[in-house]
Design brief:
The protein has one helix at 38-48, and strands spanning 2-4, 9-15, 20-25, 32-35. The chain is α+β, with helices and mostly antiparallel strands. The protein has a four-stranded antiparallel beta sheet with strand order 1-2-3-4.
Length: 49
């Protein structure tokens, strides 16, 4: 599923083994971040995007 905010578009997946959300930058799939919540993962992605 693809989401976006005013800053970037991103895809969200859930790793059920680790219970972590993984957020991928829609423009560059090599940029991704993880977090316990979707919001935390998006904030981490914003730092590197």
């Amino acid at each position: 599923m693809t989401f976006y905010n005013t800053e970037l578009k991103y895809r969200v997946t859930l790793n059920t083994d680790l219970n972590l959300f993984i957020v991928f930058n829609e423009a560059d799939a090599n940029q991704f971040a993880t977090g316990v919540t979707i919001e935390q993962a998006v904030q981490e992605l914003k730092k590197i995007a």
